[in-house]
Amino acid sequence: MDVLIIGSGGREYSIGLALSKDENVEKIYFAPGNGATDALGENLAISDFNALADFVEKNGIELTIVGPEAPLVEGIVDVFKERNLTIFGPTAKAAQLEGSKIFMKNFLARHGVPTAKYIETNSLQEAYDFINTMTAPIVVKADGLCGGKGVIIAQSQDEAKQAAGEMLSGNSFGDAGTSIVVEEFLDGYELSVFAICDGKDYVVLPAAQDHKRLLNNDQGPNTGGMGAYAPTPLVNDDIYAKLDERVIKPTLKGMQEEGMPFTGVLFIGVMVVNGDPIILEYNVRFGDPECEELMPLLKSPASELFYKAATGDLANAKIEFHDKYAVGVVMASKDYPYKNSEPAEIIIDDIYHEEINENAHISFAGVSRGEDGKLYATGGRVLVCVGIGDSIKEAQQRAYMLVGQVHYAGKQCRTDIAYQAL
Hints:
Dna Ligase, domain 1, globular, 5-stranded antiparallel sheet, Rossmann fold, 422 residues, D-amino Acid Aminotransferase, Chain A, domain 1, 30% helix, alpha+beta
């Protein structure tokens, strides 16, 4: 089959890399892709949803996979489904689980899914009154999409009130923040759990752990993610069972009952508090950089996972994972996450070390191809070095050995990815 992947980041590159090794897949297209995806397939300069559907129809593309959240929330799946085209991802209605934090929190409350105590409001006075009843830290979230950055963890009531005021005035996140959620801070450890869903059935992928802060030991500002590893030993069979019964099943049942069956990736942001999973948030696509670690752990063909989910046939899929670990280290540009950096040529050493050649790879993200044919770092998060191993330690060592082979001006990365597990 031929496949179209919507998006341009490391997540989409990783999905493309998995599909490029799949004997069921003949050709891969990316819209728009990045400067390195042209090595895996063909990049398309098409962004209009109807024009993309035209291209898919004309070229007989059998499966479209949507990577980022924005086109899902904007309704790309609805456009394709109206034309009977097979597409992996939720409808616009179902994508509200990520598109609106207020919708998501109210949905959790309606269906008895455990989550933090909260209010949703567009009234500053109401926010202040609720904040006055709380002890710090206090979490303040913008309702809409903010590229993973619309969450403030305030260390005092005053700081929470300031954050609420700046969001509601439109100063912080524009229209995305004109309604907000204020909620209690949960003290535990955080996990990323991904369920591939076809509306009724689902497959849970190995749980991952992301590293959001810029600097070692989880210091510095929040980012889109500086690295991740999977599977995490912080999840046991008991937690998986609780997630199944208390979270995934009631969510899929609730989405069906409300007339928006969920197809695609249900990304569950979990805080484990005293052994119980409490839901922080839902997203409706793979996390980035978690996707970069999960794809190489997939043993069965990637096309089967995506196609059977998109066609409501997961019950007949045999999805298997390698009994291995993956660690991914994000290499970012000099000024990330504060501002854009100057383009910098990327030089990758020839790798003679067999262990690295066979057990590590790069997933490219914020890169573009220059007129000279060279690859340049042009984005905030430039690439992810992924190592695979029989233990987390071995996977981590291989990832960092690969990091040492990649050079560009101003490169920065954390040196402690997976430290919680080690």
